[in-house]
Amino acid sequence: MDYFPRSYALAAVRERNLDLTTLCSDYYKRQTLSDAYSVPIMPVEDPSTWVLPSDITQRVILNPISRRQAGRPRTGRHVSYSERTTTQSCRRCGKPGHISRRCSNPPMINEGPSKGVPDEYRRKCSICHSIGQNKQTCPNIDSNRE
Q: What does pTM read for this prediction?
């Protein structure tokens, strides 16, 4: 058993009444740990006082040659799904936090082709089908009742 024993291995050793220390590597025993620290550790002196052979001092050691990864580098980290935040915005009034089905705000007024909500998404009158009014405020309601 050269590695840390698992629970099922320990159970098998106990079932056969074997000594666990005979199956473990010497690396994991207390005696090995105490032997490793029994030798005194001497501090290293200043590198300027070291005596080095001349063939080693004349060697020039450069940084390893490395290549950049191909392609454009990423601009930032990938955001995980749980970190993504989306804000709903109403297509009727344009305000965030709700959808058009639950909207109680007055509709936006289109001020041009790029501003506001497209006409096909705006609410229309159920009588005259024009934008900006409803069945209760329709001027044509009296003509349709007759």
A: 0.24
